[in-house]
Amino acid sequence: MKPSIYRPFSPVFKGFFDDLLPKNMTSMFGGDDFFTTPAVNIKETETNFHLEVAAPGLQKEDFKLAVENNILTISAEKQKSEEDQTDNYTRKEFQYASFKRSFQLPEHIQEEKILATYDNGVLTIDLPKDEATITPKGRTIEIK
Q1: pTM of structure
Q2: Domain spans in the chain, listed from the N-terminal domain onward
């Protein structure tokens, strides 16, 4: 006898749950998955770290960025409410979504020079390294 594995959210049930949820339910980020955390790309160069947070559908006012004890915290919150009144029928819906991501920063980041911009659904954060701690890539070795 072969043991069976219980998988409550296997692809078989996906269609069942799709039928129960409204077809127009979308996330605050513009996708079909209402509960989501945006993807973050991190790139290191010689002079800085460059973070890109994919968060379409938000405004720059929806974000909060903070640095405390060498921890960068990126959070966003969006609320929406709609009310429809027709004859004796009232429909009022509320939508709320949020996310929070935290990153441990290296000690050689210049906190006072961190820059952030939001354009076309991408939050970009530049974290400059302290120039005194940047070491050159490569060196000449003296033969003794």
Answers
A1: 0.64
A2: 28-133
